[in-house]
Design a protein that fits this description.
The protein has four helices and no strands. Helix 2 packs across helix 3 and helix 3 runs antiparallel to helix 4 (about 80-110). The chain has one domain. It is about 70% helix and about 0% strand. The chain has about 110 residues and is mainly α.
Length: about 110
């Protein structure tokens, strides 16, 4: 079966997802809170709880777990969403520089 494409290693797919998320955060196309939640899913899949940069995002995730994202937003009152979105924007602005620095480190480590 010479025509078969080799399957991408699952672990490498997770590494690629870390890099994509990190690049998105740096470019501000992905918010810090959303990126932190993605990083936690990826860290769990990789069993990468010793990674200092991912541990940094675990702390951010813990500090921001009350902010509604995704489908959870459908359960919120519109006025409450405005308030929470404003609070999340302020929080993300306050941690962006540190998060971007950690993302650069993640890109260096997990890029192919």
């Amino acid at each position: 079966m010479a025509n078969e494409q080799p399957q991408t290693d699952y672990r490498q797919t997770l590494h690629d997802s870390i890099v994509q998320t990190a690049e998105g955060l740096i470019a501000r196309s992905v918010g810090v809170v959303e990126a932190s939640r993605r990083f936690m899913e990826l860290a769990a899949e990789l069993d990468a709880w010793e990674d200092e940069d991912l541990l940094y995002f675990q702390e951010i995730d813990s500090r921001s777990d009350a902010f509604p994202l995704g489908v959870a937003r459908q359960q919120w009152d519109a006025a409450a969403l405005v308030r929470e979105d404003h609070a999340r924007a302020q929080f993300e602005q306050s941690v962006y520089a540190g998060a971007a620095e950690r993302c650069r480190s993640l890109i260096t480590r997990y890029h192919r």
